[in-house]
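Design job #97: recover the sequence.
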């Protein structure tokens, strides 16, 4: 049996990838303001509630591919209905089966306060418990606490690029099991879990996936949903999985966004993981989210 390498180590001091060159191919329809050299950019000069023609839509899609998460501020005219229409630039909206939704639109309202404490303060990507995880998400700030409540994103291709060579070799071709039971099912009765299990079985995703559009390799493990890596002995599985999920916490791979009312973030849900910082309790924070259906990963 192979011996597990010593896993715990500090993150890299330099990032093993090139920054995005914003001057190599300028954008024509809006301005791009990078937040970091590798991930995250603020977009100005676009009114999301207005008309978005094909040329503008193509540039917005390109910006998301290049920056993995893009930010817009002062989108005062954006209603839930218009947010839904804007989100459709990336595909067909889908509902998280565990989120409440309104009657007329596929928009999830995430309201946190002294009675409903935020629990999204762990690194994750959306809907990896589905056979086809969400492609991207569009999040709009409705009500923001005076301090705190930021969101952080990590570039999972940068995570993969900077893995040690022996770890890459260990997980190449491996498959991870993803399951909703240990997170969404934590407070459910056994009867309710058994009922949902009929339509939502465990699913399998590659530990090293290729992005469906860019072809970039990325690490695809998800702390709340990945339960094991197939083919890794049980005594090694937990340690290896812990090491892999911890890589999202390295600051060099991250971008952090300070929300304001009417700010919007669009993120590539396959290329990134995110973390909603729960430092604002008992203040109120209200967000509205649309998720876009994706495709199975390879």
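Job complete. Output follows.
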């Amino acid at each position: 049996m192979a011996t597990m390498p010593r896993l715990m180590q500090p993150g890299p001091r330099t990032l093993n990838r090139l920054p995005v060159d914003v001057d190599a191919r300028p954008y024509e329809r809006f301005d791009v303001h990078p937040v970091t050299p590798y991930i995250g950019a603020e977009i100005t000069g676009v009114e999301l509630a207005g008309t978005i023609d094909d040329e503008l839509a193509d540039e917005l899609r390109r910006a998301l591919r290049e920056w993995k998460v893009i930010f817009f501020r002062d989108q005062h005219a954006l209603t839930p209905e218009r947010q839904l229409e804007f989100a459709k630039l990336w595909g067909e909206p889908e509902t998280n089966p565990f989120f409440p939704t309104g009657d007329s639109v596929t928009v999830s309202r995430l309201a946190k306060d002294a009675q409903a404490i935020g629990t999204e303060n762990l690194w994750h990507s959306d809907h990896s418990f589905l056979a086809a995880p969400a492609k991207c998400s569009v999040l709009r700030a409705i009500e923001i606490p005076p301090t705190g409540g930021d969101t952080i994103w990590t570039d999972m291709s940068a995570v993969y690029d900077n893995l040690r060579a022996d770890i890459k070799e260990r997980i190449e071709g491996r498959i991870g099991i993803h399951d909703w039971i240990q997170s969404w099912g934590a407070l459910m009765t056994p009867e309710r879990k058994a009922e949902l299990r009929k339509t939502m079985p465990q699913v399998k995703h590659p530990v090293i996936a290729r992005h469906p559009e860019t072809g970039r390799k990325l690490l695809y493990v998800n702390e709340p949903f990945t339960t094991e890596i197939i083919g890794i002995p049980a005594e090694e599985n937990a340690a290896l999985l812990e090491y892999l999920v911890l890589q999202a916490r390295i600051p060099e791979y991250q971008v952090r966004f300070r929300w304001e009312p009417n700010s919007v973030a669009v993120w590539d849900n396959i290329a990134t993981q995110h973390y909603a910082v729960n430092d604002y309790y008992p203040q109120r924070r209200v967000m509205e989210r649309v998720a876009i259906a994706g495709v199975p990963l390879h």
